[in-house]
Design a protein that fits this description.
Layout: E1 16-17, H1 19-47, H2 50-75, H3 79-83, E2 86-90, H4 99-112, H5 129-133, E3 136-140, E4 151-152, H6 166-193, H7 199-204, H8 209-234
Helix pairs in contact: 1-2, 2-4, 6-8
Length: 248
């Protein structure tokens, strides 16, 4: 007899694109846009026409602005999405999002950059910030053509009865972030005491190459640990706000 656990996601439910799969799609789209730009520049230089150069420049600028919103609204996918077997889905209708949402989604993604994807690890349907803002998800277009490492299913454990309240998780996350900030602050002071970073560098930004490398390493360590605290805290994995497991 097969036992179905309440926390197990339905096998026939939506399958959401993983972060790396979405990065691949964005990389392909960047290549498409760059190819279009370099092609326009090559044509303008070859024909040596100022009028043509202005026309092509204007066309490329408009095309770059409308590329993702227009394709996502009309077909659900950019070229990168399509080649990576992904599509953007409206949560309420199950179809394509409208053009206005597609514009908002593109602008948010451009402004926030990779930070927009942090929430993919803390949301049930693996949504980035620009997905949440437009009530959309990025799903696998054709599951028969997808490999298991291309997608994830809904993380229903994030809303299970054993999950601490959102307020409690936020309070615990803030406490952890404060601890990380103070600990890495002491590390920075230690680096200064060891003459690896000068006071002039830390306070006035007048740094040598070696000091910039040390500060960059410190910054990315702080950023990485902070993001890890946020992700683990929201998923109920930090002491103080842990998810209660069945039978515990």
């Amino acid at each position: 007899m097969t036992v179905i656990h309440p926390s197990s996601p339905p096998a026939d439910g939506p399958h959401y694109g993983r972060f790396l799969r979405r990065v691949q799609a964005a990389f392909i789209d960047a290549i498409v846009i760059l190819v279009a730009i370099f092609s326009a520049v090559f044509i303008a230089v070859t024909l040596n026409s100022d009028h043509l150069a202005r026309t092509l420049g204007f066309s490329i600028a408009i095309g770059w602005l409308l590329y993702e919103p227009l394709l996502v609204a009309l077909t659900g996918s950019t070229i990168g999405h399509y080649l990576c077997n992904l599509r953007v889905v409206d949560n309420r209708t199950g179809g394509n999002i409208n053009f206005f949402k597609a514009v908002v989604r593109t602008v948010l993604k451009a402004v926030l950059g990779w930070l927009s994807f942090v929430t993919m690890a803390t949301t049930r349907r693996h949504q980035a910030i620009h997905d949440l803002a437009t009530r959309s998800t990025v799903q696998i277009r054709n599951l028969a053509q997808a490999s298991p490492h291309h997608y994830r299913v809904e993380q229903i454990e994030l809303s299970s009865a054993g999950m601490p309240s959102g307020v409690r998780r936020l309070i615990v996350i803030v406490h952890y972030l404060m601890v990380v900030f103070f600990l890495l602050g002491f590390v920075l002071l230690g680096l200064e005491s060891a003459d690896m970073v000068s006071a002039a560098c830390r306070q006035k930004g007048r740094c040598s190459t070696s000091e910039r490398i040390v500060l960059s390493t410190w910054f990315f360590a702080w950023l990485g640990v902070s993001v890890l605290c946020i992700v683990l805290g929201w998923r109920g994995r930090l002491i103080g706000a842990r998810i209660a497991r069945a039978g515990s």
